[in-house]
Design a protein that fits this description.
The protein has twelve helices and 21 strands. The chain has 384 residues and is α/β, with parallel strands linked by helices. The radius of gyration is 24 Å and the shape is elongated. The structure holds pyridoxal-5'-phosphate (PLP).
């Protein structure tokens, strides 16, 4: 890699062919009657939402889903034609932006629906919405009670709203809790049909549910993790590959004498004379600080331990097993698990968190290098 373009020795590589193949595999799994909503919140889980959007839509995604208005606007400013659903709530003072950019908004109270209906009427437009129903997660949603059904009925009668869809979200505790939520959601549909309300698009499944429970795919799935090749499912199967890897290079080598310490607080001391390399990445790049004393990286195809406390911008590794290492040598911070690399699955276990957290915490500072057809397609630094 050309450091003059990257501005630093640390970068994240994203394989767009892999994103395309994963999208096609998910599209194939869904079949023709189920839509695929690609979840690109949190900057596409650290992969770069604007860089991935075209690949996702060209290879089978029908809709882009984000959590927040700012994320929707970033996509719409790149291309006003992108179909974007905000799965979270938007402050009612920003409803003008929803209308201006033709964004599909999630609504979960009658009051919000009335406010959006009012804004839409004032603008001479119809606002596009999906309703959210609470079937037990207790995060967002209209309750799946009698009263909730009545609220939905009233929302559906507002003249300046188009209710394009309705959804709920799974707790994913176990089979029986999933089944209870799914049945509760079907019951909402039955009750609405009884009062002659027919909402076109019903959805409940995230990545895990869409692979493990084919019947939950309904009219649309909301797939995040699996687009990026992150496998959390356990019952079904889907042929996907991890698209992201994290790279750096040795920038400094110290000769540390037996008994001397490394990094803040000297939590690690050299048991013998040891060569220590400094790597230019730290927790401010999105590497979990909780890996103190547990992390390892790959150098010359070997696993090499990270020693001492992980700093904000740097960390140190023990070169004992790789005596030939030199300044400038490439280090893989994490990869897909092949060739002795630490996979995102493994690093999430070491850090006691989940895979989505590992990638979505990646910050803007490391450049993103996009590969397509085996060559470098684009580079994005903080300045882009
Ligand atoms: C994040 C999110 C998803 C996608 O989750 P994955 O597990 O990454 O597939 C789906 N639906 C909602 C409401 C979400 O917030």
């Amino acid at each position: 890699m050309d450091m003059h373009t990257l501005l630093r020795e640390t970068y994240i590589e994203i394989d767009l062919d892999c994103i395309a193949q994963n999208t096609e595999a998910i599209r194939h799994m869904c079949g023709q009657t189920t839509k695929l909503a690609a979840v690109v919140k949190a900057d596409a889980y650290g992969h770069g939402a604007c860089m991935l959007a075209d690949t996702l839509l060209e290879h089978g995604a029908d809709l882009l889903c984000v959590a927040a208005l700012s994320e929707a606007l970033e996509l719409k400013q790149q291309n006003p034609a992108y179909p974007v659903l905000i799965m979270g709530l938007t402050p009612s003072s920003c409803f003008d932006l929803i209308l201006k950019y033709d964004i599909i908004q999630t609504i979960d109270t009658l009051q919000q629906a009335e406010l959006l209906n009012h804004c839409a009427a004032a603008a001479g437009k119809k606002a596009r919405i999906h309703l959210k129903v609470d079937t037990g997660f207790h995060r967002l949603g209209i309750p799946d009670s009698e009263n909730g059904i009545e609220q939905i009925r009233q929302i559906c009668s507002l003249p300046n709203l188009t209710v394009e869809g309705i959804f709920t979200h799974l707790v994913l505790l176990d089979d029986s809790s999933n089944q209870m939520q799914y049945q509760a959601f079907l019951k909402v549909r039955e009750q609405l049909e009884r009062v002659n309300i027919h909402i076109p698009c019903w959805h409940i499944a995230d990545s895990i549910a869409s692979v493990d429970y084919p019947e939950y795919r309904m009219d649309m799935i909301r797939a995040g993790a699996i687009l990026y090749g992150l496998k959390g499912f356990h019952k079904g199967s889907l042929d996907i590959q991890q698209a992201l890897s994290f790279h750096t290079h040795i920038i400094h080598i110290s000769e540390v004498k037996a008994g001397e310490g490394v990094s803040y607080d000297f939590t690690w001391r050299a048991p013998k004379d040891t060569r220590i390399a400094t790597l230019p990445f730290g927790y401010a790049d999105g590497y979990p600080r909780s890996l103190n004393g547990k992390g390892w990286v790959t150098l010359h195809g070997k696993r090499v331990p990270v020693v001492g406390i992980i700093c904000m911008d740097q960390c140190m590794i023990d070169l004992s097993e790789v005596p030939e290492a030199q300044i400038g040598d490439e280090v893989i911070i994490y990869g897909d698990g092949s060739n002795n690399t630490l996979s995102i699955q493994e690093i999430s276990q070491l850090a006691a968190t989940n895979k989505n957290d590992i990638v979505s915490r990646l910050t803007r500072r490391p450049a993103r290098v996009y590969r397509k057809n085996g060559t470098i397609y684009a580079v994005r630094t903080m300045l882009d």
